[in-house]
Amino acid sequence: MGFNFKELQEVDPAIYEVLKNELNRQRNVIELIASENIVSPAVLQAMGSWLTNKYSEGYPNKRYYGGNEHVDVSEQLAIDRAKQLFNAEHANVQAHAGSQANLAAYMSVMKPGDTILGMSLPHGGHLTHGHPVNFSGRLFNFVHYGVDKENEVIDIEEVRKLALEHKPKVILAGASAYPRKIDFEAFRQIADEVNAYLMVDMAHIAGLIAAKLHPDPTPVSDVITTTTHKTLRGPRGALILSKQEDRFDKDGKKNLAQKVDFNVFPGMQGGPLEHVIAAKAVAFKEAMQPEFVKYQEQVIKNAKVLCDSLKDYGFRIISGGTDNHLILIDITSKGLTGKDAETALDNAMICTNKNMIPFDQRSPFNPSGIRLGTPAVTSRGMKESEMKQIAEWINKIIADVKNTELQQKIKQEVEELCKGFPVYKGVELE
Ligand SMILES: Cc1ncc(COP(=O)(O)O)c(C=O)c1O
To answer: Rounded CA gap, 360 and 330, in Å?
Structure first.
């Protein structure tokens, strides 16, 4: 892989040291954070390029500054590929991150103060789905649905009931910590019953959707947001897809696609990150290849094996299993809290995150669960047998959580396993 960091080493040894240490960490860790992944060298090269120098306020062929003839090509490629990949009518590739994409999408279908029905945070939703500290909860009137207490699957009847009661302008489907398939058609039906827009935030599952391994939100939703850096395995950033037409404003000055563009720029951002947009274009191209489908199939297989193995060790799995890339565990079933479990696993270089579980009685700072995901380990080439090994390590650590000697021993075993699955082979920082 062609990366040379000599200049960085000379100019800024402190930052060079961070890059070196972080590369070593990524090489030696079992990365189970469900929202992380490992981008390809091609994505890294586009992102780490001189395209960062260009100011490109506006859109391809409609820019405020000159000299955009080349980044117009990369941004148009990103737009066209995103539309092709998800079969969408319109794509905006400029949002800097998932949170900005959500703000721009909200502003395209609502005014501040309007009501929106989204998934509750402890039940799997995201900070930008109406948390009181976030812009979403401060600008809009969020009403929340959750999962059923018994089966821990989205309670679609509750969604209908709340929709009929609150008459939201928008219904939002999508989550950060939900291990099951989402039935977007059922959400569409409810949106139709109450004359609401349907917005989908597919940040976590975009890669699975691109590979056609999860129900497709595109035919039924008005606007879709996603990060590009999770299962989709692109650079840190976001994407908004939409229909051309605004179903409730057919004769308006702007159609829905134009509203989305307007709400990204000039509505929310100035200059786009053209180096990141070029990297998004590369990632979308990679996502159209047959190997990407195989990769996503393996992500799901790995999640299932990891989940089943943990179940066999007596862990309580939220909703009893997984259909996607992530697993949510009620760690109180082992007499621990999420924070205890996260710290103990971290000591052995198994990286997870503490997470709220549905109907959690504990605080978000020390919740009852941990969340595990398989996108990053699968990108390294790990398969079912490695998942069984990882489950065995997790079980041993959790069963004897204060045993730091055991954690150190497993850390060495983790390092050995990781050697067989190199990250950015050929990049050597001394
Ligand atoms: C469902 C969902 N939406 C939005 C976001 C926000 O993305 P970002 O962190 O890029 O702002 C996330 C990130 O975790 C997410 O899971």
So the answer is: 9
